[in-house]
Amino acid sequence: MELYEKTVLITGATDGMGKETALMFAKVGATVLIHGRNPKKLADTLAALREANPKGQYYSYQADYASLADVRAMAEAIKKEHQQIDILINNAGLYPDKRVITQDGFELTLQVNYLSSFLLTHALMPLLEASPEARIVNVSSIGHKLVWNSIKNPKFSPFFWRWVSYCRSKLLVVAWTIELARHLESKKITVNSVHPGVIRTKVIRILPVSWGSSVPSGAKTIFNLATNPAYATTTGQYFERYKLAKAAPMALNKRLQKNLWRASHDWAGLVIESEHE
Ligand SMILES: NC(=O)c1ccc[n+]([C@@H]2O[C@H](COP(=O)([O-])OP(=O)(O)OC[C@H]3O[C@@H](n4cnc5c(N)ncnc54)[C@H](OP(=O)(O)O)[C@@H]3O)[C@@H](O)[C@H]2O)c1
């Protein structure tokens, strides 16, 4: 299947690397579905895609990842308009400056950076299964190596430290990626996670402005993992930019992966129907 024949969904596509990745897919002629939380930024991104390739097909979906109801509604809207997704890029993420508990009862970083991606991916599984060769790319961070885990408490510690919360959410992304790959073994769907580099977006704006690589250089690492034929059968792996890398020992811990799988179903209000789900 050529890239121009593929349907790609990119979450958090209204800024930074997500937007840049969407532009890259538009330029190769893929059908591009973008997600964002802000209607004005969604409209601006659609306009940018049309400018990059006026012949392309583009769709936009609005959902605040701080709301599981929004994520469910978005999945339903996508299912109404599309039969198949070939590439899903779970990219939406934030780096909040204070501790917020969402209406769903979770610490905001955990919900936006991990749980909403988990729920969306689960809800869109029938569309991924409809693809002859689907790929899921989960955007994580090298920061996942710097923290310990705490999946027992989805509100995380009352003593909020933004860096720890952020890195923990990315640790869960890496551990979930490995467990999800195991559950998808019999299907033609691969899933991998990637640290795109330290990239000059608003996520790292607290750092000196000169630090970090350009947004296109980060987006290219995501695009590469999502499209490079060399990774057609690679699954359950963690990449640092273009290289296969070793994830943190905690993310590789099978017990944690299994506990997280169960806990995430519970948090997202999903039922595990069989051992293979
Ligand atoms: N920058 C880095 O150095 C770096 C390093 C490792 C990993 N990452 C990861 O890379 C991914 C992309 O981040 P970026 O650096 O490109 O940052 P960014 O420019 O801030 O993009 C983040 C995207 O996520 C969206 N988003 C944030 N909160 C959301 C919410 N509550 N609901 C729905 N969408 C939401 C943003 O929407 P708005 O446009 O409305 O803000 C934006 O589209 C993130 O997962 C981040 O953690 C970044």
Notes on the protein architecture:
The structure is a single chain. Helix 6 crosses helix 8. The chain has eight helices and eight strands, in the order βαβαβαβααβαβαββα. An eight-stranded mixed β-sheet has the order 3-2-1-4-5-6-7-8, sandwiched between helices. The protein has 277 residues and is α/β, with parallel strands linked by helices. The relative contact order is 0.13. A hairpin with a 2-residue loop joins strand 7 and strand 8. It has one domain: Rossmann fold (3-Layer(aba) Sandwich). The site of NADP nicotinamide-adenine-dinucleotide phosphate has 30 residues, from helix 1.
Counted by DSSP, the helix tally is: 8
Distance between the termini: 27 Å
Structural class: alpha/beta
* CATH architectural name: 3-Layer(aba) Sandwich
CATH homologous superfamily title: NAD(P)-binding Rossmann-like Domain
How is the largest sheet built, in terms of strand order?
A: 3-2-1-4-5-6-7-8
- The figure for the number of domains is 1
**From the alpha-carbon coordinates, what is the Rg to the nearest angstrom?**
17 Å
What is the overall shape?
Answer: globular
Q: Tell me the series of helices and strands, N- to C-terminal.
A: EHEHEHEHHEHEHEEH
Please give the number of β-strands: 8
**Oligomerization:** single chain
On the 0 to 100 scale, the average pLDDT is: 94
**What is the highest CATH level, the class?**
Alpha Beta
Poorly predicted spans: none
